[in-house]
Amino acid sequence: MNSSNPFFKNKQFDKPQTVQVDEQGNRSSVLIDYNNTMTISGTINKSFILLGLLVASAALTWMLTDSGYNPMPLLIGGAVVGLILVLVASFKPHLSAYLAPGYALFEGLFIGALSALFEAMYPGIVIQAVGATFTTFLVCFLLYKYQVVKVTEKFKSVVIGATITIAIYYLLTWLLSMFTSFQAVHYGNSWMSIGISVFVIVIAALNLFLDFDQIEKGAERQMPKYMEWFSAMGLMITLVWLYVEFLRLLSKLSSRD
Fold first, then answer.
1. Ramachandran angles phi, psi of 29, nearest 5°
2. pLDDT classification of 185: cutoffs 50, 70, 90
């Protein structure tokens, strides 16, 4: 069982880099250039680069929205192009050095437009969601770093199962709401809906532990250098999911006031 983040389920993480097999099935050692292999520090640096690009793109979108520009084209366009780049990178991880920055820029358009819409309805909600997201990330990182939370196989299976359940639930309710008059319980601001949002946030946060673990395993297995971009992109996906869920939760709480 690997990380439920689709990026970290890529087969590239399972390929040993220190052994080569020829056509006759003979295994031989491969000389590794450590300057061209994945490292944890390299992944962290690239994560900061992607985060900077995402924030810059989101800030630009926010300013355009404030000046009267319709945010919907940016929201939809950013989400669609970002999804396409994610799918391409999933099949072509060696292109991640180019796809990851593109994803950050287009996802920034989506995040900026979405944030502007929520801020217009609930002033102050964005800074709360940003603070909650990065606080959650920092807490999870420290818990993982000091091994307070250990990523066991049972832990992975529970988190992956819950994540798949959430994905199926969201997909089914979205399809039903499009073609019928069905109104999913998580759409409102009832206590049941708030409880669902809290549960989803917890699962998204737990996915961070799986992502940290997979990054560490990738460095130990001496994956190619481009996997740093690939892994950084995967972390951005989880953080974006976490931020959006915090926006939804805070909006539900604010609407009850």
1. -75, 150
2. confident
- Asked if residues 227 and 38 have their Cβ atoms less than 8 Å apart, the reply is yes
- Write out the DSSP string of 121-133: HSTTHHHHHHHHH
Under a CB-based contact definition with an 8 Å cutoff, are residues 214 and 2 in contact?
yes
Contacts of 97 (CB under 8 A, 6+ apart): 226, 229
Task: Write down the pLDDT at residue 26.
Answer: 55
Q: What does the alpha-carbon distance between residue 113 and residue 76 come to, in Å, rounded to a whole number? A: 9
Question: Token pair for residue 101?
Answer: 């920055």
* Confidence grade of residue 2 (pLDDT, cut at 50, 70, 90): very low
The distance in angstroms from the start CA to the end CA of the chain is: 42
18 phi/psi in degrees, rounded to 5: -105, 0
Instruction: Look at residues 15, 21, 52 and name the one whose alpha carbon lies nearest to residue 37.
Output: 15
DSSP 134-153: HHHHHHHHHHHHTTSS---H
Domain residue spans of the chain: 6-255
In the chain, the amino acid numbered 17 is Q
pLDDT digits (tens, 9 = 90+) for 67-114: 888 889 999 999 999 999 999 999 999 999 999 999 999 999 999 999
Q: What is the torsional sign of CA 113, 4, 191, 136? A: negative
What does each C-alpha distance from 211 to 138, 175, 236, 255 come to in angstroms? 14, 29, 11, 33
Sign of CA dihedral 141, 147, 148, 151: positive
Q: What is the mean pLDDT of the chain?
A: 86
**Is 167 in contact with 241 (CB distance < 8 Å)?**
no
